[in-house]
Design goal:
Two copies of one chain form a homodimer. By secondary structure, the first copy, chain A, is an alpha/beta fold. Chain A has two domains: 173 residues, 3-Layer(aba) Sandwich (Rossmann fold); 155 residues, Dehydroquinate synthase-like - alpha domain (Dehydroquinate synthase-like, alpha domain, Up-down Bundle). The first copy, chain A, is 44% helix and 18% strand. Chain A has 13 helices and eleven strands. In chain A, the strands form three sheets. Chain A has a seven-stranded mixed β-sheet with strand order 1-2-9-6-5-3-4. In chain A, a hairpin with a 6-residue loop joins β1 and β2. The model of chain A has no long low-confidence stretch (mean pLDDT 94). Chains A and B meet through α3, α4, β7 and β8 of A and α3, α4, β7 and β8 of B.
Chain lengths: 371, 371
């Protein structure tokens, strides 16, 4: 059995990411080693709980924990302050104390909300992440970004609050819908491009990337480990996003705009990021920051993962440009882009003007336009 | 003009408490020196804003800030998640950014809610405290405890989030109701008993303590400075209440129970603390932790401040004992009390049993019982 333990070295809140097949069944023992209180609240949604809830509870009870349970409704639409308030009520009824622990078993929505509740109940109680989607494993569960949506914007309400442990069991990906797996691969590709050239080469060398059942266990383990390591290293150097951490937004600028313009229903987040990475890569070529060869290599990997590389039909280029102006990262009307410089390295640039964006996006229009 | 700057030495979030008469008129210049963004949101309630709002805004605008305004409804009943959500809406409409600042101008309710909003909007934006009650000046505004009430308990929802600056202008106490001033003096006496013997002697030597207009400006300044210093020192050693900070709960155990049993309407918080300090002091005498002489000295100062020293009529001793069992600090059914050992020093004890509490509280029954 391969097991990796990846440290997240934060000055005040260091913790570990534990990665191993079937680690879900050793959850109780892992938590016990952290010397937290004996009351835990397992938080999930009906779908994920249906698959893995019993195993998690069995492991916790065997280790002697008093287990309480809360299920959020499934889906981004329920990522609200009201949902968190329901978890507060449960925490009160269960008599959770400061040394009690919330355990998030699910994807990014469950993790973000549970983390926010943990950050704010009794001014902060224990928190553990068990991500069950690829996206949550390599991105959302690491680094302490927690929160909920405001009716007018995603993740506007939240806190930086680090988990005490991230437990990743790759075998749970077997029940993840393929399209969601591919969306997670987009973030893996991102780490390859901006941080870890070795990871990128592994993705290039892989025969298949679009389906977890076509990946060998060692390769999947390696991909997860290196992605978690990339995230942990960046966050370890810049916990509160004062500088370096911004490079994690590679592909997210155009990506967010396209997601938002399609009402967050047509594209998964990772699909938006894939399109955004293609766009950012072209911008970087135009600015002579990186080569057309590297751009082509990236596109090839994205296509192998079955991810989109063009703007969805019906999305106007001018609408994207207008949307970019509302981005959090705009400074003095100029959008700041994360651009690759070589495989494994990226920089933040404010040299991108609307003219260049327009030219670049024109190249990425849907092929059907030319039919 | 006397001016004191008291450092709060926290490893990651150090800041200063600035204490000076009429410092409210120099608010803008103070904030400017912190190099925060140019957008600020002044948060207050109608009463306090009526007294001091114009001066605060004038100072901010003179310094070049873009000033937005939000008023919470006045009173503890509005210290809710819903109120905070209204402030989120205002922050969105004002286009606050990560380097923008919430400025709390008011007492503990305004400060706690504004701090919680600052902790959770965009995962944390700038925050400045301008406390306008004595209680907020010496206690609530320092140390980063922020939050709101849950329908079933006070301050259950919250976060540790430090301000960037606490600005104290003692002249604003002139508009504070006398009874609220006295309630604040209870916390000042607390610091004298548990931390600063010199402060306690000054309170003993003072002719008057019950009314701000009877205190000389230098004495008031000294009292404020030493109290803030005590709080800053304790918090500096234990930001998240892992150990030492618990001594700040001196008087709060019985105090909270009595406040709660009178429905939070009959007693001000500081009045509950005064009763709680008398009770804890008697427990300490009974346990031979400190002397009857020191107990008498404390009672004398509390009485000089016009604060209550006996249990309110109609509150049953057994009801208090039952209420204590729901205290956050109960461990294995045993209440943990902060008890004084000598003037300027306190310890946490779990040696107090219900029998002893019963005996002690019997001595503190209202005198009318014996009429």
């Amino acid at each position: 059995m391969t097991q990796s333990v990846i440290p997240v070295n934060l000055p005040q809140n260091a913790y570990e990411i534990a990665l191993a097949s079937d680690s879900l069944d050793r959850l109780g023992a892992w938590i016990k080693s952290l010397h937290l209180g004996h009351k835990v609240m397992l938080v999930s949604n009906p779908t994920v709980f249906g698959y893995y809830g019993k195993r998690a509870i069995a492991s916790l009870e065997t280790a002697g924990f008093e287990v309480h349970l809360h299920l959020f409704n499934d889906g981004e639409a329920y990522k609200t302050l009201d949902s968190v308030a329901q978890l507060y009520d449960k925490a009160l009824a269960a008599g959770l104390e400061r040394n009690s622990t919330f355990i998030a078993l699910g994807g990014g929505v469950v993790g973000d909300m549970t983390g926010f509740a943990a950050a704010t109940w009794l001014r902060g109680i224990g928190f553990i992440q068990i991500p069950t989607t690829l996206l949550a494993m390599v991105d959302a569960s690491i680094g302490g970004k927690t929160g909920v949506n405001h009716p007018q914007g995603k993740n506007l309400i939240g806190a930086f609050y680090q988990p005490r442990l991230v437990l990743i069991d790759p075998t749970v990906l077997q029940t993840l819908p393929e399209r969601e797996f591919r969306a997670g691969i987009a973030e893996v590709i991102k780490y390859g491009v901006i941080w870890d050239a070795g990871l990128f080469r592994q993705l290039e060398d892989a025969r298949h990337l679009a389906n977890p059942s076509h990946l060998s266990n060692p390769l999947l383990h390696e991909i997860l480990m290196r992605s978690c390591q990339a995230k942990a290293e960046v966050v370890g150097q810049d916990e509160k996003e004062a500088g370096l951490r911004a490079i994690l937004n590679y592909g997210h600028t155009i990506g967010h705009a396209v997601e938002s313009l399609t009402g967050y229903t047509e594209l998964l987040h990772g699909e938006g990021v894939a399109i955004g990475m293609v766009a950012a890569s072209r911008l970087a070529v135009a600015l002579n920051l990186w080569s057309a060869e590297d751009d082509a290599r990236q596109t090839q990997v994205i296509e192998k993962a079955g991810l989109p590389t063009r703007i969805p039909e019906g999305v106007e280029i001018e609408a994207i440009i207008a949307k970019l102006q509302t981005d959090k990262k705009v400074k003095d009307g100029r959008v700041r882009f994360v651009l690759p410089t070589r495989i494994g390295n990226a920089t933040v640039s404010d040299r991108v003007d609307n003219e260049l964006i327009r030219d670049t996006l024109t190249q990425l229009q849907p092929l059907t336009v030319n039919r």
